Amino acid sequence: MTERTESRPVEVAVDGRTRAFDVRTDETLLETLRDRCGTTSVRYCCGIGVCGTCTVLLDGDAVSSCLLLTVMAEGRQVTTPQGLAATSCSAISSAQQAFVDAGAFQCSYCIPGMALAAQAAIDRDPEASVDHLVDELAGNLCRCGSYPQVREALERLVSGPTDDTATTPEEVHQ
Amino acid sequence: MSPALNPGAAPLSRRAVGDAVDRVRGTFTFAVDRRIEGTLHAVAVRSVAPHGRITSIDAADALAVPGVVAVIDGSHVAADDGISPWYGENRADQPVLAIGKVRYVGEPVALVIADSRATAEAAAAQVWVDIEELPHVVDPVLAGAPDAPQLHDEWPNNDSGTWTLVHGDAERAMATAAHVHTATYTSPAQNHVPMEPHSATGAWLPDGSLEVWTGTQSPYVVRQRLATMFRLDPDRVRVRGDSLGGAFGSKIDLRLEGLVALASRAVGAPVRMELRRDEVFQSASKHAATVTMTTGVDEDGLLVARIIDIVWNSGAYALQTPRSSRTGMIRSPGPYRIPHVLARSVARYTNTVPTGPFRGAMTGQVCWAHESAADEIAAELGVDPVEWRRRNLLRDGDAFATGDVMHEMHYVDLLTAVDDALTADAPPTSSTRTRTRRRGRGVAAVLKTTRTPTRSEAQVQVDAEGQVAVRTSAVEMGQGAAASLAEMAARRLDMPAEDVSVSWPDTGWTPFDQTTSSSRTTFATGLAVERAASDLRACIAQQVAQPWGITPDQVVHRDGCVSSPGDPAQRMTYADVVRSSGAGELVGTGRYETPPGAGRLDPETSQGNVSVHFHQGVVGVEVEVDTETGRVHVLRAHGATYAGRLIDAERARKQIEGGMLFGLGQAVMEETLYEAGQMINPNLSDYQIPSLLDVPLTSSTVLSDADPDAEPHGIGESTVPPMAPAVANAVHDAVGVRIRDLPVTAEKVLRALREKQADDRKN
Amino acid sequence: MKFLRPETLGEAAALAREHEDAKFISGGTAVVLMLQQRLIFPTHLISLTGVTDVPGWREVRRTETGLRIGGGVLLSAVARSAHVRELAPSLASAAGVVGNARIRNQATTGGNVAESDYASDPPSVLVSLGATVEVDDGTAARIVPAAEMFTDFFTTDLRTGEVVTAVHVPAAGPGSHASYTKFCSRSAEDRPCVGVATAARLQDGVLASLEVVLGAVAAIPQRWPEVTRAALGRPLDEQVAQEVAEEYAMLVDPIDDHRGSAWYRREMVRVQVRRSLLELAGDGGAA
């Protein structure tokens, strides 16, 4: 195996824009997005489809871009977290706004994938319950422990926008 | 020679408050996003043997792969007079690339440098390394046996640090105790699992200086290590950091920086490395530990004496272990008033992944012991475990095991807050509650010292546009350091925090900071920033006071403006002040340093002033145990900590509750496993961390000091170590079995239940 | 490695026969994972996503006997399908707990069968429901019972060039009840320590048929028809559940790994089989 892996031309629509690449046949969509498109919102963590930091939408459904060869995305629509609201008039989507409002992040490495998955789930089923969204996001891991705020974001997403600010802990001054 | 990565560029600086949209959309960037045009890529060839002599390395096939530029190994390093390849905090026992010998599976043996990462990775699989295997050892207790395989010729008996603590006469006092309890508690190696993998890019500049971009928690430590390794003046090494997607201790000290510098030196071009997940597992580990604790109490259950023996597994190389194993030992008596303490600690090299600090460093292992023991002792005495702790917890004026006279002690209040939260609330309802599900509650407390001695420096400056910038070398890694530092500066300057930018670390521009770890940033770097901001405020006041005919302390600061109290016409923005000063910018400087002598301990007894203050945490949980499967569900968790002066309640909540969830994984599911010297689960399918479906309801209490001059205390670790013992104590409360070996897996609980049933039948 | 995208099944099969180290790829979750881990080194990947001549490739159809689920149907679509939920609810629940939401949006029914992953959830359910697998190499099709499809760890009865074109699931008749239980010993997101698929038909209050199939405990789905046969003619009650569970626990020869030792898996077989059957009883077994 002293030759390079074969390349192949491929056209993929990334965030609404058709992109043509000459990719290695074993190149993952994650690599293409990060190395060729400079996409920062799609991130490597586990490399085996377990953690969700590389989540993209493929024709509207959340998938792991680390388990998808770019050649397999030929002719498909890929949406990244940073491109999610690119076609709408607001800067961020309703799920993303819910995460912002709930302060649902610490280091935030995992968060764009989570918000994207939440958006896909609520778009598929606008009547989805919080429990359903939790099931849909259970495969998006967070190490900082932002889960309480993520749950809060999902509750906000289900109940629609409110003006409440995130709850703060009980404070006792001595 | 290679082009500069970004020569002369100012340090990165960003708004730290109000970055939520970028963080959620994913346009907030991390160290791993840092790409520099024209870099080559390096991939490490790693040892597949746990212990052995390298007999040959054949890179011919790899070099034949198109796109491969070079392959270097330990022999090249050893032959290079410009390199001092061995490093370590206390003893230089670790080679940047294996030289002659490998000591763990995953140790970098060679570096393949190519025009793309994929090419380097494919070629790395074709570097043929022959290793003559030597007997290996993974258990630190076995590593201490006389006939055990020896990892380092220079460090006999696999000893990577031996310490004692002597406070009073524990052995004599133990003989007088009314009741003595002894047990051994073990905790395994675990992985930090930062979501963002390690990455670094290194380049040698035309002037012979070295520049490294890296995802590190400790830029100045990295600078020092690189300077030593490449025989450079530290000023000739520039370490530039970025935000981290989690670190938890795994990104402290030298990680990839030596490798990328080495690779760049070999090929004369910038070289980048980024780890795969299995390599992250092979790069840093928590210390596994075995702690035997003997405790004597009097008739009233008051602690009389404690004797503690600790064996730490330091992995193949010492790194910080010779120091940190002592720190762990010092915390091992727990947050209790114990007149007589004897602790003996030994750390041992084994053929496993080198260890390092792990959120709540060296404390989870000992807290697991003293808090499990606390409940066991209380049970044997027939006393409620909360009440037993209340009687024995440290209060102001008590002496700690180091002889420190304690101050700002809030344990009893923290414990009460947790106990109230657990008992006052109605338990959450469960629709699936059956006769095979039992509930129980447990608490645990922890004491952690903060890094002492320590030093941080800061600058706060304002330019002619009125832009206020904080410059420190603190690292933003999700804990909210950047936002806290911005707020601390803004409050001193009476301006909105949203208008303050914070530098990202760059040793070429940002002042010294020891490290971002040990929950020290808000405290040590924060105090330096406040002092710098106060200095800048005074400097601004100075500029206007004389022209306005008032004294500097009469100048009113509000919303980024200064004014004269008596004369509404006398009002200037900070930008106006800078412009009228003609200085271009005004700069305040500040520093925090622990008092002289702080942290200096007696080498034999470890007596002295160990810490300028103490991190205090108490956690309580309610669990449900399935008695047929042993499965433990943590239903809710309440964490409490003392924050000193509180900077931001919301970020504090995230640290306290997030800390408990971090601790949850260690409590019930996390463990790196070795078979025949190989780590067998270096991936996130076989090594599990908690998911959204595993987490309990969380709540928290922050005790704080309203005095504006009070010192802030770090809170990022105080709820991590107590989580595991709180869970084990709750499991005992629920089903009457005691697990002394972490993690508290379903299988261990079921086995213990079966043994208990068998015992109950016998009796 | 070449990536090929044939348009017909015949072409796909011919390519597979032509290249010895070729591998079919459908959703890709398994194949890409193995590629990334350097566990396989195919010279050619033959994508099935461009194949247009397999009838109902991406459809769930009702047939005279039950359901035909095309090989290209995503697991998430199986889980959501009203037809599957109605006629094979245990398969819908198993498909709905494979991996995570993203895996289910990418992995296909045919790929799931062809992978023969010992810890995947659907295989044991397919066996329990008496499903059959339609395979085709472009020249000839054949039907393989699910119970004979899985032959070893990651090994199937598929011959070179054969593609799983569909899975046929008999419709649950009156009095039928089925369930799938995924028991995880660590995180809720873990692969199963033990999976239990059950299917029963009750007639006049007694068992007319019973299937209990274990997943994740051995190389392939495990069942002991002589044990379940012994329960026929009896009501599905605590005693039957207990007996079947005990027998299964005795007969199983479980694997041993970090999701559970052989001892623990055996114990969990006992607990989860009993619980599954009792749940089934509660679902109408007693009625």
In N-to-C order, the SSE pattern of chain C is EHEHEEEHHHHHHEEHEEEEEEHHH
How many DSSP E strands of chain B?
31
Class by helix and strand content of chain C?
A: alpha+beta
As a whole number of angstroms, the C-alpha radius of gyration of chain C is 19 Å
Mean pLDDT of chain B: 95
Query: Distance N terminus to C terminus of chain B?
Result: 80 Å
| Integer tally of domains of chain C | 3
* Mean pLDDT metric of chain C: 96
Question: How is this structure best described in words?
Answer:
The complex is a heterotrimer of chains A (about 170), B (about 775) and C (about 290). Chain A is about 30% helix and about 20% strand. Chain A contains five helices and six strands. In chain A, helix 2 packs across helix 3 and helix 2 crosses helix 5. With about 775 residues, chain B is α+β, with helices and mostly antiparallel strands. In chain B, the strands form eight sheets. Chain B has a seven-stranded mixed beta sheet with strand order 4-8-2-15-12-13-14, with helices on both faces. Chain B has a five-stranded mixed beta sheet with strand order 1-22-21-20-26. In chain B, helix 13 runs parallel beside helix 14. In chain C, strand 4 and strand 5 form a beta hairpin. The model of chain C has no long low-confidence stretch (mean pLDDT about 95). In chain C, helix 11 runs antiparallel to helix 12. Chain C folds into three domains: about 45 residues, Uridine Diphospho-n-acetylenolpyruvylglucosamine Reductase, domain 2 (2-Layer Sandwich); about 110 residues, 2-Layer Sandwich (Uridine Diphospho-n-acetylenolpyruvylglucosamine Reductase, domain 3); about 110 residues, Enolase-like, domain 1 (2-Layer Sandwich). With about 290 residues, chain C is an alpha+beta fold. At the A-B interface, helix 2, helix 3, helix 4, helix 5 and strand 6 of A face helix 1, helix 4, helix 16 and strand 31 of B. Strand 6 of chain A pairs parallel with strand 31 of chain B, so a sheet runs across the interface. Chain B: GO terms for molecular function: iron ion binding; oxidoreductase activity. Chain B: Pfam families: Ald_Xan_dh_C (PF01315), MoCoBD_1 (PF02738), MoCoBD_2 (PF20256). Chain B: It comes from Blastococcus saxobsidens. Chain B: This is CO/xanthine dehydrogenase Mo-binding subunit.
